[in-house]
Amino acid sequence: MVPNKKLTTASGRPFAENENSQTIGPRGPILLQDYILHEKMAHFNRERIPERVVHAKGSGAYGTLTITHDITQYTRAKVFNQVGKETRAFLRFSTVGGEKGSADTERDPRGFALKFYTEDGNWDLVGNNTPVFFIKDPKKFGDFIHTQKRDPYTNCKSPTMIWDFWSLNPESLHQVTILMSDRGTPYGYRHMDGFGSHTFSFINAQNQRFYVKFHFKTQQGIKNFTDEEAGEMRGKNPDFAQHDLLTHIDNGEFPRWAVKIQVMPEAEAATYHINPFDLTKVWPHGDYPLIDVGILELNENPDNYFAHVEQAAFAPAHVVDGIGYSPDKMLQGRILSYPDAHRYRLGANYEQIPVNRCPFMVNNYQRDGQMRIDGNGGKNPNYFPNSFDDIEADQHYKEPAWDVNAQVADWYDRNAENENDHYTQPGNLYRLMDETAKKDLIKNIVNSMSGIEGPKKDEITNRQLCHWFRADIGLGMAIAQGLQLDLSETMKHMPA
């Protein structure tokens, strides 16, 4: 007969009384020496780590990336080096603006963050379910996110703040158009596409650089809620997307995505008519068609949500040999900010947590810090170079140098001439929609903009209307009519 496991403290001390505090007599005060009480309460008080500033509400699962096509002409990354190769992965989905307890059917972009456990280290691809974003310079990120959070006076979400920011930053229009369509309320996580969003580099065995964008096309089919359906689900089951993902994987119905890339030769980046590093723009598929790479399948639910999903930490800084960065300003900003956010939330040693730990060889001279759990390097040297160990910097992993063409460092206007077309792509997107999608988009915009209030209401509304008019005259007129505005006054805000 197998003996029962003993109840112990975190330090391993067995104890007998887990339900009654030690007191002076049956009705007397509790003794300070009841350490078990203190340990239970102190740990309970610390069970909630700081939630993510953004992407707080999320779901995740493990899976496998299987390579189906040869792309070694573009990259030497080992994850892609053989057709049929399988690499373990972890994917975390999330909403962006809501708190951890918010509904996961809110109108919001969805995070699509991947961690691939490769033999050259962990590769994190941290994107969204949209190919673009609201801004293209990281200096604006904190300001933008503040508008998506709570008003400092009312402590409520504020359409006025949101539309004020968007109306003052027309670069947001492309992403706003996507957000206000039914793509802003996807039917869970299985029925939406994912994107790396940023432009990255591929480097091949000949040290040639290509620019690349990553696409993940759902094989479950695109499916969205209407605004009314999403609102109903928020009240019925605020964890709909979490439950949907979990139960389908538990039932063996593993969701899959076709992995594809767009590739741009490095030399074309300087002359392409669209800035290829502008996160508010897409690369037209007619110029850079999708290239098949593989299949991503999610097939394993984490056995503990907190240990895996809540403590998962993704950073675009985490690339591997054969995959690199680009001059994408938002990417450059996230290279700094994401690891910094994880150090704040989880501690300096967050990469030792099992979900974040590289399962292959790791050698460095990082030491100490809270929650160091890997032996801290033992008695080995904690400096480099040294005369005692055999760790060396392998020059085979050196990337080719960037050619910056002797450019002058300055604070360049992100919306200067030739960088300020914020209307063509969102207008084209609207014109590609069928009539039902157009009607839903207009209705959702009208419903949201109707929440603008206060003494600046007319100014903000008319400024945003000007952007809609510039994207598409018909779209602007339909929104103005939906808002029941005086069309004679509205016509003053139409572009010349």
Automatic annotation (TrEMBL):
Region Disordered: list its residue ranges.
Answer: 1-26
Residue ranges of every copy of the Catalase core domain listed in the record:
8-392
Q: Which PROSITE patterns match?
A: CATALASE_2, CATALASE_3
User: Known SMART domains for this protein?
Assistant: Catalase
Where is composition skewed (Polar residues) in this entry?
Answer: 1-11
SUPFAM superfamilies in the cross-refs: Heme-dependent catalase-like
Please name the InterPro entries in this protein's record: Catalase, Catalase_3, Catalase_AS, Catalase_clade1/3, Catalase_core, Catalase_immune_responsive, Catalase_sf
UniProt keyword Amino-acid biosynthesis present: no
Q: Does the keyword Iron apply?
A: yes
Which cofactor does this sequence's record say it needs?
heme
The UniProt keywords, alphabetically, are: Heme, Hydrogen peroxide, Iron, Metal-binding, Oxidoreductase, Peroxidase
Q: What is its EC number?
A: 1.11.1.6
**Family as reported in the entry's similarity comment:** Belongs to the catalase family.
What this protein is called in its record is catalase
The organism's taxonomic lineage, starting at the top: Bacteria, Pseudomonadati, Bacteroidota, Sphingobacteriia, Sphingobacteriales
